[in-house]
Structure formats: structure tokens, C-alpha cells
Design goal:
This protein is an all-alpha fold. The chain has helices at residues 2-23, 53-57, 72-91, 95-117, 122-135, 144-169, 176-208, 210-216, 222-234. Helix 4 (95-117) runs antiparallel to helix 9 (222-234) and helix 7 crosses helix 9 (222-234). The longest helix is centred in the C-terminal third of the chain and has 33 residues, at 176-208.
Length: 235
């Protein structure tokens, strides 16, 4: 029952995560206005806002105007539900399960906002870092000292990488959001997790987006690959 209930909670949190990924990058409030259709701006009724099920029932369209609803909504809800069900399956009813579910949910939110807006909101990075430090004194994760060290090393290491990249490529190589994100990851994973995350993130970014960036000159949304690297490092 615990993983099932955690999965349901994850679905609900995934619905909220969708709101965060659309509004925080544009400095909007997640409280007001209530959820509405982007086409006709009609308020979304509660029975049309049930995670995944409402999207399927409405066949991906607004009940009022028929505007297509982005498939991001059910996908993020489903992914967050699976994250919460999976971590509670692995760790049982424990603080470590909560810690893992929160970290992976935050990483998912960061990946979405960085891919869509090239922005990593402070609410994810700084807010997530505070959560990581608050959960550090509990068993199975890094100690508070290790979490603080991880946050410092995470920020400093990526700052150094950014400085070297700027010198090599003669243009800004690392955004401030990436630095704060790595501090957050360090607070959850400690110093070893920081090094593994940066290595995996750089490897994935180079292999997947590097050739595109080299050819088109587009910025690499590095937060996506750091999020993937941190998820692997946690697992």
C-alpha cells in the first residue's frame, strides 16, 4: 500500500510541478490565478484537473474551447507518480524515500524548465538546497557537514568549469542557475555525488547536445544533463 499511496501523492505533486515549470520561469505566481485554459482562459474545473485521467477523458482538449492541451501535463504527472512510487518501493516508508522522491522531482522540474526556457528557477535550486540541508541530519543520507561541503564544492566546481569554458570559447559558458543547481545537488548527494554528477552531465551533454551546439551556436541547456547525471548518481 505504501508505494501505491506514494504514487498517488506523486501524481498530485506532478500536477503542481507542471504549474511550477510554466510559471516560475516567467516569475508568475503558482497560487494566482487558478489553473486556466491557455486558449480561452476559462478556469479549469476540479474534475478536469485530475492527474492523467482528466487528460485522457478530455482527449487532450479543453472542455470549453477545444484547444489542445500540452502532453507535458500528463507526462510530468505520470513521471512524478512513478518517481514517488519507485523511491518508496526501494526504501520503504522512510525519510530516505522522501529525500529521494523530492530530489528526483526537483531534478525533473529543472530539466523541463531548462529545456523549455533555458532557465533554472531559484525556487528549484535554492529551495531544493534548503530541503537537502534540512533532511541531512536524518539517517542514510549525507551528514549535515557532508551536505554543506557538497553544496560548497558543487557551486565552486561548476564556477571553475564555467571560468575555464569562458576563457576557452571566449563567451559565457555557464549560467548562474547551473551553479546554484549544483549547490542543491551537493546538499543532497555530498561531495562524491557532485563529482559524479558533473562527469556524467558533461559526458551526456557533449555526446547528445555538443554537436548541435557546435554546428548551430545554440547554448547547451546544461541543466538537463546535470539533472540526468544527478539522478544516476543518486540511484
Amino acid at each position: 500500500m505504501v508505494p501505491a499511496l506514494a504514487g498517488v501523492l506523486g501524481l498530485l505533486l506532478g500536477s503542481f510541478l507542471n504549474v511550477c515549470t510554466f510559471r516560475w520561469p516567467t516569475e508568475g505566481s503558482v497560487v494566482h490565478p487558478p489553473s486556466n485554459c491557455p486558449g480561452c482562459e476559462s478556469p479549469i474545473r476540479w474534475y478536469d484537473n485530475i492527474p492523467v485521467l482528466s487528460f485522457l477523458a478530455l482527449r487532450g482538449r479543453c472542455r470549453s474551447c477545444g484547444t489542445s492541451i500540452s502532453p507535458q501535463y500528463p507526462l510530468i504527472e505520470l513521471a512524478t507518480g512513478l518517481i514517488w512510487a519507485g523511491t518508496f518501493t526501494q526504501h520503504g516508508l522512510s525519510v530516505e524515500a522522501l529525500r529521494g522522491a523530492l530530489l528526483l522531482s526537483i531534478l525533473l522540474g529543472i530539466a523541463v524548465t531548462d529545456a523549455r526556457f533555458y532557465i533554472i528557477p531559484d525556487q528549484f535550486s535554492i529551495g531544493g538546497g534548503i530541503l537537502g540541508l534540512l533532511l541531512a541530519p536524518f539517517p542514510d543520507g549525507p551528514t549535515l557537514l557532508q551536505a554543506l561541503a557538497g553544496a560548497g564544492v558543487g557551486f565552486g566546481l561548476l564556477w571553475l568549469v564555467g571560468k575555464v569554458g569562458t576563457w576557452l570559447f571566449k563567451k559565457e559558458a555557464m549560467g548562474g542557475g547551473d551553479l546554484k543547481m549544483m549547490a542543491m545537488i551537493g546538499a543532497f548527494l555530498g561531495v562524491p555525488g557532485v563529482f559524479l554528477t558533473v562527469f556524467l552531465g558533461a559526458l551526456l551533454g557533449s555526446l547528445i547536445f555538443g554537436p548541435i551546439s557546435w554546428k548551430t551556436g545554440k547554448l547547451v541547456p546544461f541543466g538537463i544533463f546535470l539533472a540526468a547525471g544527478a539522478a544516476v548518481a543518486y540511484g
